[in-house]
């Protein structure tokens, strides 16, 4: 190894002067015109001229960065020194230190400061990032969401303004009451968490709201349908909610998707009485079909069933069914 | 919830009876199913059952609805209309009278931004994309805020090259409303 290195160093030592002289002779030989002289004064051109003459880069002319390799031996004394860098006796030589955090008998910092378990286990609990009614109204006003189609997670995420990350235990959106007094849209919306006044605000305007659970795999699919279709895997069946979520999603008060529709109708009526508005009649509504459109509890996307596969790795935009058939 | 708890209680009763019997019990454990996804669930039938494949193109329209738009959807164009959320379309009739112009962002919103530095100790509100006379805008903005906050020091700053006017403090909603009233 040492021999190799010494050869290399001599080689390096040899190469550089060679190049230097070669370049200077090249310059003397070729530079008659002033233009070429001016051109070669440029750093880039000089570098390029140099590269043309240097040998090919290989393991032979490469050397590791000296700082990257640590010497195994401690550079002290013969065979490393009598005490190998450590002082005489004591904990430093014998490595009998106390535990980390010990403060010589004083109550240590990590015990002195009390615990405050406000967020204990928060990383294990389901979270629903908020989406306010005001934000929803703004999306509708600026024509980012079409109110004549049902609104679900995919619709909200496709605006590319709102998103959630299932990796952070986000299980969908929580429709909040900020802006419920000025909410005026008539929509069919499906979210994951909602409170009573928000339901009242939506139903007052003649719309319908449903709370539905999506399991983690379905969430990954619905938050970015374009990416999911390009994966080329069959559309999944949506799983039923876990035990602690069943109570919420079977509750007609929260318009759960697993609740009894008759009881939901009753709750709509009582809520209208509670909040003091005239409950719009759905049966005589011209948009009845839109407002009553619901997904199957095991369905992830509207109109598409579990088990279906989309042919992947194609530019999806502008791909008509006829073109697809020819593939 | 009720049906699940019933299941659980019935299995507990079973266990109890086995214990009382005193016999060598082959206790059926409470089946605790960990929440699985679709792909990790076992297939219901034999593989030969799933050989039929049918190609369909009719449902493509549902796929198209699920694809996001490539461009920001166009906002309504009727000038000066106020929408329920408070969002308003620009009104050229009103703003063309003024010596400055503030264009909307690509999402159709007003370019008023609140920024804070030094852990909230230093706050500014900035009006960007100003064209025309930034100095008059700075003056008018300062006057408006001073009228509303007579006891607060209103420090304004204009940058002609950067095309912005900046005010110390958090005045984002007020400035936005003021600009909307001017028709921007």
UniProtKB/TrEMBL annotation, chain A:
GO CC field: mitochondrial large ribosomal subunit
Record field: compositional bias (Basic residues): 75-86
Signal peptide bounds: none
Residue span, Large ribosomal subunit protein uL15/eL18 domain: 130-210
GO biological process: translation
Annotated segments matching region Disordered: 62-93
Keywords, alphabetical: Ribonucleoprotein, Ribosomal protein
Pfam family, one: Ribosomal_L27A
Domain of life assignment: Eukaryota
One GO MF term: structural constituent of ribosome
Family matches, as InterPro entries: Ribosomal_uL15/eL18, Ribosomal_uL15_bac-type
Protein family membership: Belongs to the universal ribosomal protein uL15 family.
PANTHER family recorded: 50S RIBOSOMAL PROTEIN L15, LARGE RIBOSOMAL SUBUNIT PROTEIN UL15M
Full protein name: Large ribosomal subunit protein uL15m
TrEMBL record, chain B:
Keyword check for Ribonucleoprotein: yes
Any one of the GO CC terms: mitochondrial large ribosomal subunit
Entry's Gene Ontology molecular function annotations: structural constituent of ribosome
Compartment(s) where it occurs, according to its Swiss-Prot or TrEMBL record: Mitochondrion
GO biological processes: translation
Keywords: Mitochondrion, Ribonucleoprotein, Ribosomal protein
InterPro entries to which the protein is assigned, alphabetical: Ribosomal_mL49
Family note: Belongs to the mitochondrion-specific ribosomal protein mL49 family.
PANTHER family tied to this protein: LARGE RIBOSOMAL SUBUNIT PROTEIN ML49, MITOCHONDRIAL 39S RIBOSOMAL PROTEIN L49
Protein's name according to its UniProt entry: Large ribosomal subunit protein mL49
Organism: Allacma fusca
